[in-house]
Design goal:
about 30% strand, 4 helices, alpha+beta, about 30% helix, globular
């Protein structure tokens, strides 16, 4: 049963821990370092059985990974990244497979170091999107274009000095950028 995305290591949460990574991140906002934690991409995947004889609701589980250097310049850039993940989701092609995993929701989180707000972009699949922020007091705030730009700049600054994290995906596009940038200094 292939529940993973090709060439992307993910942390899998069991059903009893569903969304615990998001909840822990929310509770920890006040303790974040100056630039904050790496961006978090949280995916909800449902397992759909090939022969749904029992007519049960699909089994939902959470999967997540961290990102440095994704270049979240706009919500559309994040949507394009999620679309790429959808295409890379592995499917089991064996004749004895009893179903497949389908990504049904994605939540991309990035920390705005200037206002100390965690920005969430939720993408519901097959359609729908929600953009909001949360503060250390767990207040939900609206994120406008300037708020997104602050989050983007914070994300770029974090990519320049990445922390060591488990299951971390560092993108080559920023590696090349920072290599060229460091040659000037």
């Amino acid at each position: 049963m292939a529940n993973s995305i090709k060439n992307l290591p993910e942390i899998n949460e069991s059903e009893s821990q569903y969304e615990s990574a998001l909840k822990l991140r929310l509770r920890s906002i006040s303790q974040f370092s100056l630039l904050g934690p790496p961006d978090l991409c949280y995916l909800t995947k449902d397992f759909h059985r090939s022969l749904n004889i029992s007519f049960n609701k699909p089994n939902s589980q959470g999967f997540y990974h961290y990102n440095y250097g994704l270049c979240p310049s706009t919500p559309a850039a994040i949507s394009a990244y999620i679309t790429k993940l959808l295409k890379m989701q592995e499917t089991e092609s064996n004749w004895f497979s009893n179903g497949k995993w389908i990504i049904t929701k994605a939540c991309y989180c990035m920390f705005d170091a200037f206002t100390r707000t965690d920005i969430y972009l939720e993408i519901m699949l097959p359609g729908g999107m929600r953009l909001y922020g949360t503060t250390a007091n767990e207040e939900i705030t609206q994120i406008d274009e300037k708020g997104w730009e602050k989050g983007y700049v914070s994300s770029v600054l974090r990519a320049m000095q990445p922390e060591k994290m488990p299951i971390l995906k560092l993108y080559r596009e920023f590696q090349r950028f920072f290599h060229n940038f460091s040659s000037y200094t």
